[in-house]
Amino acid sequence: MAQTRCFGQLLLTVVFLFVGLCDSAWAVRIKDIANFSGVRDNQLIGYGLVVGLPGTGDKKDSVFTLSSMKNMLDKMGIGVKSSALKIKNVASVMVTARMPVSAKPGTRLDVTVSSVGDASSLAGGVLLQTALKGVDGKIYGLAQGALTVGGYSAQGNAASTSKNISTVGLIPGGAIVERGIPFQFNQQDRLTLNLRSADFSTAQQIAERLNRAIGGSFARAEDASSITLMVPPQYRNNLVPLMASVENLEVSPDTPAKVVVDEKTGTVVLGRDVRISKAAVAHGNLQITVQEGEQVSQPGPFSGGQTVVTPQTNLDVREEHRHLVMVEGATLQELVDGLNAIGATPRDLISILRTLQASGSLHAGLEVI
C-alpha cells in the first residue's frame, strides 16, 4: 500500500512537471514580441559618388553623374568642362544607414551603397565622403570608405556571367555619427510597449505580468497593441534596470487562428489554433489534351487524283476519380492528416481551404499573400 501511494505521488509529480514544461515551452520574452517607446532606429540617406571602378561605372549618357563630378571638382577649385569628363570609372549611388536612437557622436554605423545609374558593377570602388541626412533634412553622419561587394559580373562579345548582385555594396562601420538624436531616454515618466502582433489577450496578459513583477498597478493595456507602464518612483531617472527586468519577463502570447497562403510559391502555413467543423472533401483534376495534326492523302499511280492534306484532331480526356473523405479538424494534426488522406498537394490545399472557408467549415482567418 505504501509503495502504491509513493508511486501515485511520483506520478502526480511527473504530470505537474510535464504540464509546467508544456506551459514554459510556449513562453517567450516580452522583448521578442514587443517594441519599447523611444527605442528605435532612424533611417538616414545620402547621395554620393563611387570612384575607382575598373570601367564598370556609369555610361556617358548619365547626366546626373557628369553634373555631380563637375560640381565636386568645382568645389575643390578644379575648373573643368563637362565634355572633358570620362565617367566610366565613376558611379552615382544612394547611401543608406540605420541610426539607433542611442547613437552618440563618434559612433560608427554600417552603410549600404546602391547604384542609381547604369553602372554594371561596384566591385573595387571607393565611396567618397557622403552626408547622411534624416527625415528632417539635417545631417547626422558622414560616410566614406572602400566597398565590399558580394557578387561579380563579367561579359564579353558573345557571353556573360554574373553571381549575386554586384550593384549593391556594404561598408562595415563606414559612417561616423556627427549629431545625436535629441531624445532623453531616462527622463520619461512612462513607457509604452507596442506589440508586433496586435491581440487583446496578449496585451492584457503582459499588463498583469508586469504588475505582478513590479508589485503594484503600474501597467495598463490601452488597446490590442499598446501597454502603458508608469515608471515606479525607485526607477525615475534610471530606466535601464527597469528595462532590463521588463524585457526578460516571459509571457505566453495568444494569436487568432489564421491560415496564410502564398499562391506564388504554393506555400501554406496553418496556425496551431486552426479548427474545422466536420466536412466531406473531394478533390480531383480534369485534364483535357487536344493535339492537332495533318495527314496527307496520296492518290494511286496514274489515277489522275490529287494529293490532299486532311486535318486530324486527337482528343484525350483524363479525370481523377477520388472518393469523399470526411475531415473533422478538432486539432491541427487531424486537419493535416485529413488533407493528406486525399493526397492533396500544397496547390490543392489552397483550393480546399478556400472552399472550406466559403462553406463555413474553416474556423480561421484566411490570408492570401
Number of β-strand runs: 22
What overall form do the CA principal axes indicate?
flat
Count of all domains: 3
Which structural class fits the helix and strand makeup? alpha+beta
Provide the β-strand percentage band.
35-45%
Mean pLDDT: 79
Distance between the termini: 62 Å
The number of helical elements comes to 6
* N-to-C series of helices and strands: HEEEHEEEEEEEEHEEHEEEEEEEHHEE
Instruction: State Rg.
Output: 33 Å
Low-pLDDT ranges: 1-25
Trace the largest sheet across and list its strands.
3-4-5-10-7-6
Major beta-sheet overview? 6 strands, antiparallel, barrel
- Helix share, percent: 10-25%
Give an account of the 3D structure.
β15 and β16 form a beta hairpin. The chain contains six helices and 22 strands. The chain is of the alpha+beta class. Strands 3-4-5-10-7-6 form a six-stranded antiparallel barrel. The protein folds into three domains: 41-152 and 161-177, no CATH class; 184-251, 2-Layer Sandwich (Ribosomal Protein S8, Chain: A, domain 1), CATH 3.30.1370; 258-284 and 322-368, no CATH class. Mean pLDDT is 79; it is low at 1-25. The chain is flat, with a radius of gyration of 33 Å.
Brief digest:
The protein is of the alpha+beta class. 23% of the residues lie in helices and 37% in strands.
